[in-house]
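User: I'm curious what two different proteins look like when written out as structure tokens. Can you demonstrate?

Assistant: Sure. I'll show them one after the other, since each token string lines up with its own sequence. Here's the first protein:
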Amino acid sequence: MQAPQAKKIPKELTIHGDTRVDNYYWMNQREDQEVIDHLNAENAYTKEVLKPTENFQSELYEEMVGRIKKDDESVPYRKRGYWYYTRFVTEGEYPIFCRKKGSGSFKDAGEEEVMMDVNEMAKGHSYYKIGGLGVSPNNKLLVYSEDTLSRRIYTLKLKDLETGKFLEMEIPGTTGGATWASDNETIFYTERDETTLRSYKIVSYNIHTKESQERYVEMDDTFNCGVYKSKSEKYIIISSGASITSEYQFIAAEKPKDEFKMFQPRIRGLEYGISHFEDRWYVLTNWDAQNFRLMQTKESNTTRENWTEVIGHRKDTLLEGIELFKNFMVVEERTDGQNHMRIIDQQTNEEYYMEFDSETYNCWSSTNPEFDTEILRYGYTSMTTPSSVFDFNMRTRERKLLKQQEVIGGYNEEEYDSKRVWATARDGERIPMSVVFKKSENTEPRPLLLYAYGSYGHSLDPYFSTIRLSLLDRGFMYVIAHIRGGEDLGRKWYDNGKLLKKKNTFYDFIDCAEHLIKEKYTVKDNLYAIGGSAGGLLMGAIINYRPDLWNGVIAAVPFVDVVTTMLDDTIPLTTGEYDEWGNPNEKEYYHYIKSYSPYDNIEEKEYPNMLITTGLHDSQVQYWEPAKWLAKLRELKTDKNTLIMSCNMDTGHGGASGRFEALKETAKEYAFLFMLEGIEK
């Protein structure tokens, strides 16, 4: 079967006196039958190429599903006299949200109430996703939301938890969450723009009178807004933010009709986050503090000149967040690429760090809705330790394991090893990598899959994956590269991998790969790269810069036509991204972005084997970006390597909505890697 050849209709795109010719611009017509036919032809070709692996794909899928505990249950947490938890039934693709009444222990609580069986709700939908669930303060009503299109636009609905009946309320076009005022009848929610998907308007709605009122409209199209309640439940807070600027407004939750009061007006470049505690606010901010510091201020005087310092700025440590309790404060920090949790006694000011065993791990504050408690619930995982939930007594320092992710079929942690490896980048920076592999007598270089993201200041922490065992057990090594563009080594790590320094992200990934080859972890013929979304941009850049380094590359929902997308402010996310990539309406940014944008830099040369994935309804990276990229690669590349694309015609950016269905995509990706490695079982 021949690979599909897309027709060419030249489209000239001119700005700043520079003309680009895009032969595949026509693919952006989602409703055009010719576009649909082309995507179907690509899918048919991919199916044909991967046909020899079909049985193996099924085996891999069964293997992955086989490790998952089918009838699993989350650790319950207590809030306002109820224990809340989620459970799955053996055949169910979706969760069941439950609660039990009781203020004592969970085992002494009352009968189970099923608030929402998503398996029932999802019937008849090819895609179904529940948004945020919000129980009213009197515990009687549940506001929830659903998305059946995979475009991240949710419809809010209402259920009476006492009678089990669904009530008359349908509010379309929202972000999915809703916040209750103290009166049990007013909800606040955020509206999303249907075209750009920007969250731009806060509305209050009375469930009895059915009256809605516009409370705030965000006029700056580079900002998004949202609404939530403080952990103290005293305030309803509106947040407005762009990637480097924040602003908050608040009202008392018991006075939902009040005017919102400004906390601190926006100043470009000033980021801050707020947490309410007794008679004051804590403020986490980058004001004169690249890695953030913690301030506090009285409830009544909230503007910046009233803030006083609680925890100062440190050059080597990023302050990431705080969790407040009546007598304790938990501080989440990151030093040298590793996150830590510091406990501060609010009475005595004594403090200590929680201790963990592994060289590379991830710890985080879990669900802690209760304020008056000495117990911190936290999560822990490492590359070799399944995800675990603990209760930690902050006074006695005793910890109790509540649940560890169960690996069905058995898993012996002793058979695997993980470590931290540092590569030196071309400009001298040291880049950390998290490595995991199955122990073996064999000292030969192994097949290796290198993964990274490197954008938006998103740090990639080490984590355990039952799915990944299918790679490790077949001899693969798996490596996460903590490259610039993330915030793994503090805010400077992010600042040095964005805007006019974006290329550091790509160079770091290549330099990590070179280091792994030099240190004999792998060789070029056995080296593979994987990345998705902005990490798919990374994949597009590295195959242009160093196509010779990789035997195969998987690019999931890749953002690869950066110039065209960033010039189109009708596309979702564009205007809010100027602080990340730059605004190409400005000449300097245009030429810099054009110099690395994967689609604009494809040349007549050899490229590695590639599998590209996308979704027709993807709202974050439009399907036409990967489709055009593939067509241009196929037109210009001079090799005979595999180049295929899998386009899911039903789903969007997050892929399939069911917990098992999504694994079919992963099985396909792994089968592609194993095919290139000559591994057949």
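Here's a second, unrelated protein for contrast:
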Amino acid sequence: MMTISSRTLAFLFFISLFLSSISLADNANEDLEDLEQLLSIDEEEDKGGAAQGKPSEAELLSRAQRIVIELNNENVKRVIDGNELVLVLGYAPWCQRSAELMPRFAEAATALKEMRSPVVMAKLDAERYTKAAKLLDIKGFPTILLFVNGSAKPYTGGFTGDEILIWVRKKTGSPLIRLSSVTAAEKFLKKHQIHVIGFFESYEIHGYLCLELLTDLYSNMQGVEYDEFVKAATTENEIQFVETNDVKVAKVLYPDIRSNKAFIGIVKSEPERYESFEEKIEEENILNFVEVNKFALVTSLTELNSARVYSSPIKLQVYFFAETDDSKPFILLLQDVARKYKSKIMFIYVDSSEESLAKPLLTLFGLDGKRPLVTAFDNRIGSKYLMDSNITTRNLEEFCSGLLHGTLSAFFKSEPIPNHVSIHLVSYVHT
């Protein structure tokens, strides 16, 4: 008698689930029960196939995508109304940004399931299921919405798997991760390349301190500062905030801590790895500190981070254009100069071969990006500048100094003067 593998059974079950999902007889509970059964098959398969090695990356992605419920015109209302928390990705099959976001969305779904989060992750082909898209008010692609008891909240986070996970956790009641042991801190570092650490002796929120602490002015001050840290962690949408009251744990996350007083710092995976917060501990100051310091010294522009780059509070921005191979000799030079203008000028690298990113910017200067070049923008006044000298440390520093102090001559793109001008016409040169 022919035997059927568990993987084949899983595949057949998935097909049957898909077919049943478009039936009017479906309901939200059945969708979720079917999903759990499918996942249990995967878990059994993992145990049975342990001797054959770990699943491939493609297998992991396929499994992650199956955690995300497929919405359609028939089941969308039941899923949204039948669950307290639903995160929906509206996409179109032809949309490149949707295709880039899909595996990251699935990655976040996997992490949330492992954390036993109550958030249901769902996706909707908004082009195919227009009725459902209209019901959810999805008009562009990709669109992410969080439904809380049926009411939609716009997504305002980043677009990596970690950033989606962080945003969901913060918006559903977990703005902070609390670490109480060195082992937990070491495990945290393996998963989070960038984070904000807060070290406080007291976790108590001001106004809820116990009677003994109310007699201690220092502890009371720590409560106020911790309150501001929690507010900032809740408001900031993209960076994971972590807290500890153990200095040994804090030193694992931020080795340069030299005080037992309240401390806040940001940790990144780049040459400027550690940056400490030196201002008064208030929500607005913390948020400004994170916004200015969360980017790398030289940020690589991508489809997923472009909106954040363009909306950065640092309004003086220097753009370096080059193809990947041509950029390598200049990156260290750019980082050295960027370090001197940190928090004043933002430095951005754009791969000239990525037309969707480079061409709109290069067109403003009438350039094709075939050779490395540097431009700049002052977004406070809408002016643009072109560095027309060789890219050396000295020339770039002079260019940046002029940008900072307002002494650069703005660039104006001119149309070529016509070769033949009719005596009956007046030709204008647009600038």
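A detail about the second structure: The domain at 176-293 is CATH 3.40.30.10 (Glutaredoxin).
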